[in-house]
Design brief:
Blueprint (H helix, E strand, L loop, with lengths): L1 E8 L3 E5 L2 E5 L5 E6 L4 E7 L7 E2 L1 E7 L4 E3 L4 E6 L3 E6 L2 E2 L8 E8 L2 E8 L6 E5 L5 E4 L9 E5 L2 E8 L2 E10 L2 E10 L1 E4 L3 E7 L6 E8 L5 E8 L13 H10 L3 H4 L5 H6 L2 H8 L4 E3 L10 E6 L5 E10 L2 E7 L1
Parallel strand pairs: 1-10
Antiparallel strand pairs: 1-4, 2-3, 2-5, 5-7, 6-11, 7-8, 9-10, 12-13, 13-14, 14-15, 16-17, 17-18, 18-19, 20-21, 21-22, 22-23, 24-25, 25-26, 26-27
Length: 328
Amino acid sequence: MEYYLHIKPTFNCLLKVQDLSQELNKNRLHTFLVNMEEPLNLSFYPVDEENKNSLPFVAVLKNENNLLTTNKKQLDIISFPDNNYLITVQPFLFACPENFDIQTKQVKTENTTHTITWLKQEKGLLTISNNKNEESIKLNLKNEVNTLNTKQKNNFIFGYSKSNNKYTVFCVKYENDTYYPIVNQVVDILEEEQNKITTYKNLNDFAGHGVITTYNFENGFEENITLAYNNSAPLISKHKEIIPYAFFEAIKIKNFKLAKNYLTKELSQKLTNAHLEKFFGNFDSVCQTLSQKFNPEEIALIYNLPYKHAKIYSLKLKENKIENISET
């Protein structure tokens, strides 16, 4: 069966696949048509000095139940319609054993002592465990953890660390001998009071949204989330190329009032907030389609469940307002 592989590496590399060898530029999309009658090997070789700790590696693509999968975590695969796949490639990084800096910290919740373990040089290597049982949790953090600050309340473990002018924030609940992840994110601002921590995360969307989250530890553990704007009011796009992105960004964070600003009066009156939420569901991100011919009225929404896949929507615009939306 033939597949279109749209490969986007985050580092300059040489790709070898079947009888083809081609140099790929980082953050650029490269398209290949391959025939897969059996598992396909993709070999990646770093070609610059930017990633000195990266190694060559081979990723195997397999067809499992008409869906391409891989054995390497360095590849993020999103299924698009008509056998198109968007594949983002991260470098295969290693750390020298002599530079390992393993850190541990013990915290206590009620009658259980927990050990938090992490590597200072690495992302995503934080583990929480205890001696009562073999249960543990591994958190895939998106930033390095240097000095770790923690708070405990009842059966909640809250931690944060500052690195590269960002704050890594996580929270885990320990209940019935099991760890449950509650929070895991990187934020821009963190302020701490005696029994309260407040964070701000810039969503970097067109409207200028930000999220204010307050964690209260006074009586128990409480999390309150408020939507805010970086400016006094949201930016409203009047450009045809940007309107679909601005509309779906507002839908994603459930700011339906802002989203309806981009609809014609007739369509806005027909659609309730519940209609919009149910029709589009919970999607992870908004991006262009993989079509070689750019069409500003077509856009892809990326969903994580039941697997990473894209749905393509066609938007018909009239005088810079959306008058119709359909799934293609």
